[in-house]
Design a protein that fits this description.
Keywords: FAD, Flavoprotein. InterPro entries: FAD/NAD-bd_sf, FAD/NAD-binding_dom, FAD/NAD-linked_Rdtase_dimer_sf, Pyr_nuc-diS_OxRdtase, Pyr_nucl-diS_OxRdtase_dimer. Belongs to the class-I pyridine nucleotide-disulfide oxidoreductase family. This is NAD(P)/FAD-dependent oxidoreductase. It is built from 16 helices and 21 strands. With 484 residues, the protein is α/β, with parallel strands linked by helices. The strands form five sheets. Strands 1, 2, 3, 4, 5, 6 and 16 form a seven-stranded mixed β-sheet that branches. The chain starts with 6 loop residues before the first strand and ends in a 6-residue tail after the last helix.
């Protein structure tokens, strides 16, 4: 394809999970589709985020569970086998090879152009390929920007010279640093602190606010307690004022905080947020600002482009920065593009085929710390700010027979948010070992808008942790439907 100027119905920039799903759905709608990627097909999630990070965390969580099971505790007393953990991580990241992803694209008849793609005016994309050629692409119906995000670093002088870690260096690490500083309190920060502490690092966390600040407060509190019990030095109210490497830039990193403290570490991981990967994709050629997020309407169109051909899907639109949500958006956007190309009306009512309702009403998320955190929908505070009248129902998961069976000394907590007027579940948060498996049932309850009276007839098996649903409903009933 080098040197040619082909036209397609749809051109997709970025072949991470979002871009791949968008291309798959537009192709399934009968539209010719090409995808452009400058790195590995599968993107951040497959190679530097979701897959390798969970591979690092799985043995950590499995060992933590085993230590709470009578008869297994002595079998897991020793340290983790670090080379084996890294070998498993490498396998889950496909050894940073993407041949299987290319085969998949071929199997669904999506063309691929490797290289740096950027907009070059309305409906035009140019790609500079690795062998120095230039490919010019034209989109008849849509260009989908699925370029995701990159690490957002704080504005610190000479930071790059200190070789800071991002999630990429952490998840692809070839060694376990003796001392690791983690800057930030979000999901990447707590997960990598969990993993590297279990692998043998002495971990210090510098957190400006609290941990997991966008979730229910008790989630961050319980994760904080567990990290500290594991030996992590968690310091709140701290920002980094400066970083430098000793010994002419080759030695340990010396981190100075805003209160004058100093922490010395072998590596420093910045997990301080994400920025849109839009700085070098030609936004200026269509009147947009490079480096900005791309806000969209509820069909994922960028409204500033009046002709309606530009879509922004996944993290880049700043709606819900999670892989599974980007894939959801891609499924919706692909169906929208297909319908518009055929002149069909959109089914865009609440929960309609072309509606992105879950972006605001039912975003699920799991934090793979010890304990795990699983959430869907708004927190109690968010629901109230949105004008909902809600009842908040809390329950100690450790009282459930299934939890007692699961782990000796089980500690966990559940919170369900009920719309007190419509009497349906709008949000839920679970914290504790194994709670990730509670999340889909909660997501179904939220998206189905099932009345709590109907949920009484969804009988949980005994003895499982899912019996917490029954206890929550009993608590709500016994409070006359007005639990605080």
């Amino acid at each position: 394809m080098n040197g040619t100027s082909p036209a397609y119905d749809v051109v997709v920039l970025g072949a991470g999970p979002t871009g791949e799903n968008l291309a798959d759905r537009t192709r399934a709608a009968g539209l010719t589709t090409v995808i452009v990627e400058n790195e590995l097909l599968g993107g951040e999630c497959s190679f530097w985020a979701c897959e390798p990070s969970k591979a690092l965390l799985r043995p950590v969580l499995a060992r933590a569970d085993a230590r709470r099971v009578p008869g297994l505790r002595r079998a897991v007393e020793g340290p983790l086998d670090v080379p084996a953990v890294f070998e498993h991580r490498d396998a889950m990241a496909a050894h940073w090879q993407d041949a299987d992803q290319e085969e998949w694209l071929d199997s669904v008849s999506v063309d691929l152009v490797r290289g740096h793609g950027r907009l070059n005016g309305p409906r035009q994309v140019v790609v500079d390929t690795p062998d120095g050629e230039r490919v010019e692409l034209t989109a008849r119906h849509a260009v989908g920007v699925c370029t995701g995000t990159v690490t957002a670093f704080p504005d610190l002088p000479e930071l790059a010279a200190t070789r800071p870690w991002t999630n990429r260096q952490a998840t692809a690490a070839r060694h376990v640093p003796d001392r690791l500083v983690v800057v930030g309190g979000g999901v990447v920060a707590v997960e990598m602190a969990t993993a590297f502490r279990a692998l043998g690092s002495r971990v210090t966390m510098l957190v400006r606010g609290g941990l997991l600040g966008r979730m229910e407060p008790f989630a961050g509190e319980m994760v904080t307690d567990a990290l500290r019990e594991a030996g992590v030095d968690v310091r709140f109210g701290r920002s980094v004022a400066g970083v430098e490497r000793e010994d002419g830039g080759e030695g340990p990193a010396r981190v100075t905080t805003d209160d004058g403290d100093t922490v010395v570490a072998d590596e420093i991981l910045f997990a301080t947020g994400r920025a849109p990967h839009t700085g070098d994709i030609g936004l200026e050629t269509v009147g947009l600002t490079p480096g900005d997020w791309l806000p969209v309407d509820d069909s994922y169109r960028v409204p500033e482009i009046t002709e309606g051909w530009l879509y922004a899907v996944g993290d880049v639109n700043h709606r819900a920065l999670m892989t599974h949500q980007g894939k959801y958006q891609a499924r919706i956007a692909g169906a929208v593009i297909g319908a518009r190309a055929k002149g069909e009306p959109l089914d865009d009512g609440r929960w309609g085929r072309h509606a992105p309702t879950a972006d605001s009403a039912a975003v699920p998320q799991v934090v793979f710390t010890e304990p795990e955190v699983a959430t869907v929908g708004p927190t109690a505070r968010e629901a109230e700010r949105a004008g909902l009248k809600v009842d908040v129902v809390d329950y100690d998961i450790g009282k459930i027979a299934g939890a007692v069976q699961y782990a000796e000394g089980y500690r966990g907590r559940a919170r369900v948010i009920v719309d007190s007027e419509r009497r349906n579940v709008v949000g839920a948060t679970f914290v504790g070992p194994g709670v990730q498996e509670l999340l889909y049932s909660a997501t179904v309850a939220v998206t189905s808008e099932v009345p709590v009276d109907r949920l009484w007839h969804a009988v949980p098996a005994f003895p499982t942790i899912s019996e917490v649903w029954l206890r929550i409903l009993e608590t709500y009933r016994d409070s006359d439907g007005s639990a605080d």
